Amino acid sequence: MTFSQRVVELALSIPPGRVTTYGALARAAGGGPLAARSITSILSKYPNPGAIPWHRIVYSDGRVWVSPEHEAERRKRYKKEGMKLLPNGKLADFEELLFDFAEL
């Protein structure tokens, strides 16, 4: 299995109501220190990108990637999963929401 395949498989395994970081996902997939930078590119090339729970992958400080075209959908998904996005762009209770891939 390639690194990209492992990234997709792991991203799909993040449970609702939980999040991981780009770095944690990259490390769990076997990537090195700079591999986190490739996560977005890998997931965007997945044949069915809508199936990827992209809102569950955040920065290491709990901030979420915000783009005007996806902000409303992101907020909707967080609300549906019981997560709250704070005005500073971070998830409330970030540390408690973190998913450990060792739980798989």
Can you describe this structure?
- This protein is mainly alpha-helical.
- It has a single domain (about 5-104), classed as Winged helix-like DNA-binding domain superfamily/Winged helix DNA-binding domain (Arc Repressor Mutant, subunit A, Orthogonal Bundle).
- It is about 35% helix and about 5% strand.
- The chain has 5 helices and 2 strands; from the N terminus they run αβααβαα.
- It has helices at about 5-10, 20-30, 40-45, 70-80, 95, and strands at about 20, 55-60.
- A two-stranded parallel sheet has the order 1-2.
- It is globular.
- The model has no long low-confidence stretch (mean pLDDT about 95).
CATH superfamily: Winged helix-like DNA-binding domain superfamily/Winged helix DNA-binding domain
Specify the biggest β-sheet.
2 strands, parallel
Q: What is the name of the CATH class? A: Mainly Alpha
Helix segment tally: 5
Through-space gap between termini: 18 Å
Number of domains: 1
CATH third-tier fold name: Arc Repressor Mutant, subunit A
Low-confidence stretches: none
